[in-house]
Design goal:
Beta Polymerase, domain 2, Four Helix Bundle (Hemerythrin (Met), subunit A), 8-stranded antiparallel beta sheet, alpha+beta, single chain
Length: 942
Amino acid sequence: MDVPTTKASKAEADLVDIEALKAELAAYAEEAGGNGGDFAVRTKVLKHLKSVMREAREEAEELLFADGSGTKCAKRLCQIQDALIRAIYDFAVEFVYKVENPSSGERLSVAAVGGYGRGTLAPFSDVDLLFLLPYKQTPWGEQVVEYILYMLWDLGLKVGHSTRNVDECLRQARGDMTIRTALLEVRYIHGDAPLFKELVKRFDEEVIAGTGPEFIAAKLAERDERHRRQGASRYLVEPNVKEGKGGLRDLHSLFWIAKYFYRVRSGSELVKVGVLSRAEYKRFRKCDDFLWAVRCHMHFLTGRPEERLSFDIQREIAVRLGYTQHPGMKDVERFMKHYFLVAKDVGDLTRIICAALENQHVKIAQKLSRFLGRLGRGMARQRVIKGFPDFLIENARITVASDGAFEKDPVNLIRIFALADRNNVAFHPEAMKLIRRSLKLITPDVRDDPEANRLFLQILTSRNDPETVLRKMNEAGVLGRFVPDFGKVVAMMQFNMYHHYTVDEHLIHAVGVMAAIDRGEAGENHPLSTDLIKSIQNRKLLYVAIFLHDIAKGRPEDHSIVGARIARKLCPRFGLTAAETDTVAWLIEHHLDMSTIAQSRDLSDRKTIEDFARIVQSMERLKLLLILTVADIRAVGPGVFNGWKGQLLRTLFYETEPLLTGGHSQVSRDERVKSAKQELAEALGHWSAKERKSYLGRHYPAYWLRVPLERKVADAEMIREADSKKERLAVRVATHAFEGVTEVTVLAPDHPRLLSTIAGACFVAGANIVDAQIDTTTDGFALDTIFISRELPDDEDELRRGRRIADLIGKALRGEESLPATVAKKAASKARLKAFRIEAEALVNNAWSDRYTVIEVTGLDRPGLLFDLTRAISDLNLNIASAHVVTFGERVVDVFYVTDLTGQKIANIGRQDAIRKRLAKAVDGEEEQSAPPKRPRRAAAS
């Protein structure tokens, strides 16, 4: 058959003409007198096969771009592989190991198993083969198998293979569920066809028959374990397309189960046996096609069997699939939203097929109860829910009394979830299927129905498990229909490394975190929030605010402002008063403020606290905002919230509280300094009066106002010891387990590049700085305290790590370590986050502090960035009073409180502009280093 020449015809035809390929290979053997085993002939054959495979795969990739069909691409690649194997097989038996009169034992059948057996293949997938023998291996069969395998390996293919006779296949399939699954999809490729047919017939009769429940239970257990390994949520922002929840393997598992139990050979037969409706089967095929398209593009793009849809390739895959940017959403975010909607559909199909298995074959219910729901001890145990005749509880699962329950009263679509929460029961799969098919009943009238909204608020503010019920509502499609603004963020991802989940999953998880705090289950991690929530006047405001706080994501405007506007529309619908609505809207508009100020502002600066107090205005709002902030950060993803962030939030709360309650905020600055000195003098009672008086004069006011007493005492003892030893350099290390940080305090002669040197040493040592406070003594020394992220759980281990970092800092300060070269070398060895584009920006602000100019630098995080920034600031002849480092995934926000060398703010507009330009260049790694400035700093003297 000639290879077609037009795109349209090529799309419908095999990409490798097997007969033409066999003839071309035969010609090489005939040139050598029929000796196909000659090494020179083998070399020519291999070279030709490589050329054919490469050209065919390139054609398959072009066709994928042309028609966009993932399943067609996977089938084309499978056809290419089949053709290569058939050609190699025929060449081996005709020209290399030809047998004139083969015996009954000299038969061989080559079959595809596993994924290859389904007739689909990704560009760099493993090729799983079964070499099927009639009885036992013969020398001829061994040689042919070896020839085929070595040719495939030399083609660069990864081949999984087994060589067995029929009896061995059946025996191993009975004892090994993996082998049984592989044989379930066995497909004939070439060789002895009767031998293959014998295997299929006997496998069906001797292995499959009567073992359906056992197989289904095993596959569902395997699926659960796979989900646990990959991450239980299908909304992880870097999903595994093959193995993750809602991925291809889930679809394959569904088909394996249905194929095994219903004995069907194709997906379309699931409609005939009543497992899926035609619409559902169409959805099955669309999901399969989309996921295959994504997977094939990933393999083609990376040139390897890449299954994880990582940030590095998401944007390029989006472009390959034809997604474009819309207002408020990037092309990659539109693509990933489609991906997660498909993953959600896969979850729906799972529930539908599980329901069909249970209803049509109730005898397997006991064995499947662990996976299909809590079924109890009998299928007939039912009870009507008192006062709600439309609903039944059947074996600890809620279901409907009739298929017309939702049509009779559409509010039942909300009521069923409220009853499930109240009775603490799971959902019957049939009920979930009926809910999904009744979504069109949720009309504007239902959305405005007072009872429906009362029930929804009851679910949202439940003291049981609102997160689980809301997630079920979302999976069923009810939540997005009942709250259309929520529907707009369903499956929406944010293309960054900070948020681990889609927006809808984040909102639902945040409700769960709020409920845990409300129940007192988070006291160890969030002691202040757990305590405060008991005293707030109206807990439902917190739940409504946390549910709506990110509901405006993906829109062109600021999502906090638009979210507040949406809240003003929705809250009255939910039954909230005008005053309650105003509070919820305020919380949403300001839901980022407390986190931003706590992490990126100097909390010892009075102006910071006063400005924040003006925003909050009341203690009740301060309490609400703190709890909301904790729940929001906690719900971003595992490990995002830590003890250090919690400590910063508590500090901001406690510093702001007096301003809102009329406490010591009225005390003058001088009186507070005097009080702090007296407090330390009392703590140093074991010192002589002369020593205490001398030491109290060594610090400037800023030190006394912002350093806690415990650290003041430790600083005093360290300085005293250094003085007694006449040492000019001292380093102290302390661990803070609850806050998750390690404190490193450095006493050294004041120098403009001291913080830069410390930052560079920390980077070289692999330590991540999260905060820094810089103080200068009146006798020319600097007292710099940095806080680095804790890495080791045991205090002793972490202390040893801290001391190693301290030693490196000491070497760098003594000139024993050349930091610029070491930092550059280490930074070059670390990959930059090329998937993200963040424009570097430096803001210079004189309004955020009465005493300092505040520089806020934003950009793409990279190795050695803090070192480069602090060097640039030193080159600009600026003194750093404090530094605050915040990282939101790939985005870094570094804030520096600075003065000029005379201790004044940077008022000159031209100089401010120079600072902005220089630091923006430093973020991008384009900073030009000059010689270090000579003049000493005096930032803390102000």
